[in-house]
Amino acid sequence: MEEKKEIALIGHYFQLVLRKRWFVIVPFCLAMAIGFGLFTWAPKTYEAMTLILVEPQAVPGDVVKPIVSRDISSRISTITQQITSRSNLEMIIGQFQLFKKPEEQKLFMEDKL
Q: What is the 3-state secondary structure (H, E, C) of the chain?
């Protein structure tokens, strides 16, 4: 008896979905169209982040002669300058073709950077 009620209940929900299918189909199609429109026309923004872990020397300086003579902040500053250098950024722009729209191709490299 219990199984017949469950089957009838499932059949009732199935019939309800078939009768009201437009309440599901229309919002789904609208959401897909809006999502595709935003994907197509929204400006492309790229951002990358990284975390660099710099550990100080663990062995005392009087036991082993230190290889690196500069402090951590100057090393991080050097790495930052190398990453954001003009030549490195130009190579990335060319490699990934970041400005390939016709109106963006007319820009000077200084504007792209």
A: CHHHHHHHHHHHHHHHHHHCCHHHHHHHHHHHHHHHHHHHHCCCCCCCCCCCCCCCCCCCCCCCCCCCCCCHHHHHHHHHHHHCCHHHHHHHHHHHCCCCCHHHHCCCHHHHC
pLDDT score for 70: 67
The arithmetic mean of pLDDT across residues 67-92, rounded, is: 82
pTM metric for this prediction: 0.41
Domain spans in the chain, listed from the N-terminal domain onward: 1-42, 45-113
Q: Tokens 């979905």, residue?
A: 17
Answer left, alpha or beta for residue 97, where phi above 0 means left and psi between -120 and 50 means alpha: left
* Nearest-angstrom CA–CA distance, 113 and 109: 6
- Model confidence band, residue 37 (pLDDT cutoffs 50, 70, 90): very high
